[in-house]
Every structure is written in C-alpha cells, then in structure tokens.
Amino acid sequence: MKAVPGFALTTVSLLAFCHAYIAWRLLPALVTGMPGWIAGIGLLALSTLLIPLAMLARFVTPRQILADRLSWAGSLAMGLFSSVLVLTLLRDIGLTLADEPSLTKPTALLVPILAGLITLVGFINARRLPRVVEVDIPLAGLPPALVGFTIVQISDLHIGPTIKRRHIQAVVDRVNGLGADAVAITGDLVDGSVKQLAADIAPLAELEARHGSYVVTGNHEYYAGVGAWWAEFARLGLHGLMNEHRVIAHDGAKLVLAGVADYGAQAFDPAQRSDPAKALAGAPTDAPKILLAHQPRSAGAAAAAGFDLQLSGHTHGGQFWPWPLFVRLQQPYTAGLHRLGRLQVYTSRGTGYWGPPKRFGAPAEITRIRLLAADGPA
C-alpha cells in the first residue's frame, strides 16, 4: 500500500505532461476566447485525474458501488485519451511532412472527431457478447477416437469494475451451447478480490463440458491474491492445473491436458514458477499433449517439453490500435494460430477486455477448437 501514493504521483505527472501536449497542439486551432480555453483545459484536467482512478478507485473509497463508478469514468476517459494522444502525434507528423499551414485547423478538428468515433465503435465492440471463432487444428498422430474432439477456450475475462455477472452469464450460456468436450480457461479471470467479485464470477460454476472445465493462472490472478482465487476456482468446480496435467479418457483414447502457472508467477511465489516440463512429468508418452499457458511466450519451454499444442491468451490481440504493434515487443505471437517446430500455438484475443472498454480491430472471442488428424479432416 505504501507504493500506491508514489505510483499515483508518477502516473498523474506523466498523464499531465501528455494532456499538456494535447492542449498545446490542439487548443490554439480549436478554441477562441477565454470560455473556450477554460472549457478545453478543464476537460483535459478532468481526464488527467479520472484516468488513475480507473486503477486506484478501490483505494480511494471502500464503497464498492462508488469505486466501480469511478473505475467506469476513468476507463472511458483512458480510452478516449489514448486515441486523442495517438492521433495528435500522427497529426503533428503529417503537418511536418506536408508543410501546409492551411491544414492546421481542419486536422485539429479531425482529431477529436476521429477519436470519439473510434472510442464509440470500440466501446460497442467491447461490450457486446463475444463472437465464436471456429479453429480446426491438425495434430500429427492423433488417434481416430480424438478426431473431432472439441475444446472451447475462454481467456482474459477480467471480471471486475466494468465486467459483471450479467456479462459472464451470457458468456457461459454461449459456451454451453457449443457442446464442448472440454472447456479451457487460460488465465486473467479477475481484477479484484474474492470478496469483491464472488457473485460476479459465480456463473462459471455452470460451465458444461463432457470432460469438465480447466483453468490456469494469469498475471492478474497474482495481483488479486492467487491463493484465495485458486480455492474459489476449485469451489466453482473448475479443475486447476498448476504445473500439472490430467489424462482425459475419451472413447478409448487418451489425451493429456496440462497447465502451467503464469509465465511471471515466480515473481510472486518462487514455488509457482511456470514449468511446462514439470506439468508433463509422468504423462503417457503416446498421447497427444496440450498445454494451457496464459502467455504465448511459454511456447519455447512448451516445445522443449514435447507438447503438441499450446493454448494461450494475455495479449487481447492488442485490444485497439496502436497496441497490436507493441505486443510483439513482449510476446512472440499476438493472435491466431502459429507454429514453433512441432508445437502449434493458438493465442486468443481474449473474451473480455482490460482497462478501457474498447476493442477496435481486435474483437473479443470465444474459441471453439476442433482437433483433426494431420493428414486431413474427419
């Protein structure tokens, strides 16, 4: 808790600088007279203060309803500000290259219009029920009994101040309508404590699949108190995979489904260091091996351990531009199906969102994965 004031001060200082840059570059071309300047500076100052509240609201007030409303206001401000900042930077680059003074005012006007439109469309995309993405993945040596085996993956729900029970119930209902053989939840379910979110996460107890539902930790579980949440997942009937595996018997064939702790778990608990090799220890050598790993960058260790397929999340597909460009600086894959030697890696764009309720160019998804034999479909 002692780190919160210092973090808040640093955040507000950086935000103030960025908002001052926007004011410097846009307001002279957009407003005239003192009332316009007061309104413009006032809105930017309000945004500077609201954005940190999206992350710090629960420290500001003990009242959950008020904290959620502050988070909503700060998250919406964050989404709009991010687009205004990026478009302002692009405008400055364009004006420098064009060297045409007549473009100064119309381009300044275009920035808030485009930012508002992107934020509105992004909000609608983020808040609607995620689409179902169908993915066929061929695996070498897949037993005939496992051809057509389906795994429904949900990831990065981020249940918290702006994602509540109603939305989670709708996700669960859609998943249950897909008739999965197994459900895989690849981390970052929550942004808050069990006390705060127990009622909102409760619908996950209703998930239906022939062989059950499996979950691994993401980085946000560690921020929120992994021990309490691990126990809560078990209470909800979710099978936790913490550097371990289960052998699924399906129509006479075997499938190894393993899971690892989040890639950065050792920073919170050295005993929970992510370890794909440990997760596979003692597993049948002649069965297909699938790993649930929150972050795609577990792929190197997963490939070395001998897995055939890794299911991941974490990236949100970038969530909205320009963040997809930066995801690749940390993760080997942003979204979709990729290959690393024998290992195939599917990275979900996520079922929820984090921070701004905004998805633009990276739609949320519920993924229905169907296993096929490598030499062709069933």
Keywords:
Purple Acid Phosphatase, chain A, domain 2, alpha/beta, six-stranded mixed β-sheet, elongated
Summarize the structure.
This protein is α/β, with parallel strands linked by helices and 378 residues long. It has 2 domains: 3-127, no CATH class; 132-373, Metallo-dependent phosphatases (Purple Acid Phosphatase, chain A, domain 2), CATH 3.60.21. It has 11 helices and 12 strands.
List the helices and strands and how they pair.
Blueprint: H1 3-30, H2 33-60, H3 64-98, H4 104-127, E1 131-139, E2 150-154, H5 165-176, E3 182-186, H6 194-201, E4 213-216, H7 219-224, H8 226-235, E5 239-240, E6 244-250, E7 253-259, H9 276-280, E8 289-292, H10 299-305, E9 309-312, H11 323-327, E10 336-340, E11 343-347, E12 365-373
Parallel strand pairs: 1-12, 2-3, 3-4, 4-5, 7-8, 8-9, 9-11
Antiparallel strand pairs: 2-12, 6-7, 10-11
Helix pairs in contact: 1-2, 1-3, 1-4, 2-3, 3-4
